[in-house]
User: Fold this.
Amino acid sequence: MDNPLHLLAFAAIVAFAMVTEAALGFGATVIAVTLGAHFVALDVLLPALVPVNFLLSCGVLLRHRAHVDRALLLRRVLPAMAPGVAVGLVLWRLGTGKSLLVAFAVFVVGLAAVELTREARGHARAVRPLPRPIEALLLACAGVAHGLYGTGGPLVVYAAGRALPDKAGFRATLTALWGVLGVVLLVQYAVQGLIGVRSGQVSLALLPALGVGLWLGDRVHGRVDERLFRRLVWTLLLAAALALLVRSV
Assistant:
């Protein structure tokens, strides 16, 4: 990245994204990609961000691993998402930068609209578990999104989140999921030659943002009203995705 101001702006975005994920259990990549794509190309952004996000998952899990719902993660979430991740990675290799960016912007606009509508109607995150076939289908779609953009979080939140009514268990289980999927993405990016000196320099520049996320995320998790925070995040994402869509087309 040649422009220091762009790098600084991206680092600030990543710091906000890390705080959000450390507090809620999801959101880092979708925030960083939606906002960061205004400053960094997608083929540089994701290979630089995924290693830092993986370290965030490790840091959160070190402190909260006791809350992970291993049965849900290993028996339902990962088996349903794995085929979708493979499909998403193939689509990532076939897509062009502009087409991927437009598709991602549309994806985030749709998700943000759904989430804000649900929040406006007063629906809590965990109501009742979805029927297993619907849950598996949504998780498979989340896998495709994760393979394509490094984030299937919102779909996972909607599907698996209904089976995780406990706030601490929700955050810890999703964090464990992102850690596992982060390894898959890192291997894929390395095989494609996308992880190298260029992405490594950006990753190193993002380490202070990681520290901010780990330090502040726990405090936000315990003290800030979660529903209000989620509304603010999704409103910001909707505005950023619309701007990204306008710019890309």
